[in-house]
Batch of 2 targets.
Target 1
Amino acid sequence: MSRREEPLTIPRENADLRTFVRKKRIRIWLQTLGWEVFWLAVFFYYHSRTDMTFDYRFSLVLSALLVAGLFLFGWIRMMVDRSYVGVIRQIVFRRVMNTDLLGNRGGKSVLAEQMLLWVEETNGHRHKIVIARKKNFDRYYHVGDQIVHHSGLPYPESNDGADRYLYVCSLCGGVELTDTDHCHGCGASLIKPPQSRYTKTEERFF
Ligand SMILES: [Zn+2]
């Protein structure tokens, strides 16, 4: 099953994707730090200014811990989002209603098409990947295909898609033909297959 021998890091030639992941990590880390500093400041402000009862102070500490914990949880989730290779065991399509709670779309709710990939690693670990359903995904992802998830990138790369001359953009999910270096939709670089797979596909021609 392990056709892919090289380490699961994003290739050097995909510098833009590496930068994207690095920036995402820094952003999450700073957000976490920011919220913790904010809640500590709130706590110390109340602590110094008011004669609070013990109960009130206790609940304030609890809520501060809860909020800090939630953001820390998000950060930890990002940190444990490791790269892996797995096989698609099940594909589920679903429609979800994205309710516009913040009023960004003028209060209109949008019906979003999603694709759920149940992926199993060689060691038996199961992962659920939820991605927005994009054009040509039915041609790109299939049950039984081997996929590579790169930590921090939303769309997994299919090793079998390469055999069908199809490539997915790791950032926007646009499906491209093999002969392009960059995504037509967002301009991100496409992760190219290891050399072994190029020779494998060429062998089919001769
Ligand atoms: Zn793209």
Note: The first strand starts at residue 84 and ends at 98.
Target 2
Amino acid sequence: MLKHDNIEPTPRTDYVAIKDAKSYAVVVDPSRKLGWTKNSIEPWNENRSEDRIVEVLTEQVSDAYLAHLRKIGISYIFGGKDRLNFTVVVEKPKNLFAIDKLKLEGGGFLNGSFLNEGLIDELSLILVPIADSASNSVTLFERAPF
Ligand SMILES: NC(=O)c1ccc[n+]([C@@H]2O[C@H](COP(=O)([O-])OP(=O)(O)OC[C@H]3O[C@@H](n4cnc5c(N)ncnc54)[C@H](OP(=O)(O)O)[C@@H]3O)[C@@H](O)[C@H]2O)c1
């Protein structure tokens, strides 16, 4: 539960907690649904290093959430006032953290949003022969209602 009392108003400027991590997880969380308790995602095998978290937010986020992220050492960047502009979202990691390569691991809405802004230059697709009976299944590229 976030503490909302005695929180100073916070300017909506990007916050860099650390900029020399080996790898990062840039996490799109416009509605700030993610309740992080630590600032990194642990490696899941011995060939990987931990990913330091960078949250992508809109300016509608609460001051309390920003205070929480700073307290636990999570960097955050703003991708728009009310809606995300993904061209901005991919430029900031390069400028602020020297991230040259991004692997997009979306569901269909995130994938479709990047495709619409011409931000995908390579596609890796695994086709698996499974029959899915749900008529409302999310496809590889969706048009986001956001
Ligand atoms: N690699 C994979 O195979 C892979 C990866 C991920 C998901 N999936 C599958 O894909 C399906 C859909 O998953 P999903 O809907 O969670 O994935 P998604 O398309 O990645 O969307 C995740 C969240 O990203 C935010 N988002 C996406 N597009 C946005 C936009 N244009 N503007 C602002 N926010 C945007 C929304 O956050 P808010 O809700 O906070 O607004 C949305 O809920 C699921 O069946 C999932 O299992 C597959």
Note: The chain has three helices and four strands.
